Structure formats: C-alpha cells, structure tokens
Amino acid sequence: MEFATMSAKLGSEVHIIEYADRALVAYQENYIDSVVAKMTAEGVYFHFKQAVQAVEETTAGLRVTTAQGLELETDYVLDVTGRIPNVENLGPDELGIAYNRSGIVVNEYLQTSVPNIFASGDVIDKNIPCLTSTASFESDYIAAYILGVNQEAIQYPAIPNLVYTFPRIAQVGVSVVEGRENDAYRIVEIPFGQQLKFQAKLEDEAHVTLIVNQNKELVGASLLGNEAGEMINLLTLMINQKVTANDLS
C-alpha cells in the first residue's frame, strides 16, 4: 500500500493484487475503506480475492496470472507478501533449537528450547510487531536477564505502528475489534477532521478511535490522518503511563 501510494503519486499505473477480501486486514476496516477509496480515485486498481499463480517474462515486460483468471501485463512486479525468518542457515537443527515457519520458538524469557541460548528480533516467533525498536528492547531485556538485573518475564510496552499511505493510518494497543468484542472496554470516536485546522488542509476524514478500560485508562487507539504518525506517539506515551481521563481533566 505504501509503495503503491508513492508510485501512483509519481504517475505510474498501479495494480494491487490481494489474496484477502480487503487490504490491510490488521487495521481498522472503515479507515482502510477510506484509504482504498482515495487511492482508487487517484487511479490505483485493486484486485481482491486473487491468488497469484505465475509471473512470466514477455517481450514487453512481465505477465502476472492469478488462479482466478486475472491476467495483467506490466513492466515491474513488487512482491510484498511478507517475510519469513531466515533461520535454517543459523544451524538450529544441529543445536536442537526448536523453530517453525514463523521463526525460532522462545518462552516468556526469550529463551529457546536450549535454555542458555536466547533469541531476539524478527527471527523469533511472536505476535509483537517486527520493528527495530522491538528488537532493541528484546536485546536489552536479554542482557539484563543474563546479568541478573531483571529475572521477570518480558513485559512489552504498547508498540505503535504506522502505514505511510495518504492519509496515514496508525494504531497502538488494544484494537478496535478487541474493544468491540469485550464489554470491559469503551470506545470513543473523535472526528477531529471537522476542526477548522484540518479542514483547511483538506483532511475532513481525519479521525481517531480510542479504547478505554473500566479504570478510564487509555489502552488502545487507532488514527486516520496525515498527522497520525506524530499523534500516535503521544497516545502511546499515555497508554504506557496509564493515563486516565481524570488525569487529563
């Protein structure tokens, strides 16, 4: 989505072939719908529920064929189907270290199946976002654990993530889907794009969704807007500091 946005802005004809029935399934659906609608209006073509079957060279460039019968002629293909941890060449089998397709298996102390060998970063099997900051946090934790400074299980802070589309999408903490499925949470929606400041920048669609727990603590947030990257950092700080509505008042 990010490269598609940039390429379209630079004047390229862009086609996105997606196996799922919508783009960016991990993010708030109505925000994604807004971004997809805007990208479509700018000339990006979306092909959902399509499984790429082959990419072949032709005299003119490349031909992409899907199992559903879609056929596209293009001069460039960008494969963004995700990353698989490259663990085989690290010799885990020789050391008896357990791993799977998602990476090296670790416990809550980041120990592998060989207790005196630890692992961190994108190479481990985890549900935490694979970011540089996450890998650094894990490595610092391992060092503290080995030195005896911290013997507690790893506790991750709220970790934000951002999609560089136009407008941008950001989220952190408890998701909107989790919030709606659990009565312990309350969802607050703020269409801040209605403020004059954002209307002047043609950002009428700018919006934030907040998830609050029963203690009135902010536990999750989702943002749509070109300033989402800056705003999500402040909301992340509030989540990690367990800021309540009473604190803000």
TrEMBL record:
It comes from Streptococcus lutetiensis. Keywords: FAD, Flavoprotein, Oxidoreductase. SUPFAM superfamilies: FAD/NAD(P)-binding domain (SSF51905), FAD/NAD-linked reductases, dimerisation (C-terminal) domain (SSF55424). Residues 159-248 form the Pyridine nucleotide-disulphide oxidoreductase dimerisation domain. Residues 1-136 form the FAD/NAD(P)-binding domain. Its EC number is 1.8.1.4. This is Dihydrolipoyl dehydrogenase. GO terms for molecular function: dihydrolipoyl dehydrogenase (NADH) activity. It is an enzyme of class 1 (oxidoreductase). The lineage of its organism: Bacteria, Bacillati, Bacillota, Bacilli, Lactobacillales. It comes from the Bacteria. InterPro entries: FAD/NAD-bd_sf, FAD/NAD-binding_dom, FAD/NAD-linked_Rdtase_dimer_sf, Pyr_nucl-diS_OxRdtase_dimer. Pfam families: Pyr_redox_2, Pyr_redox_dim. Its cofactor is FAD. The gene is pdhD.
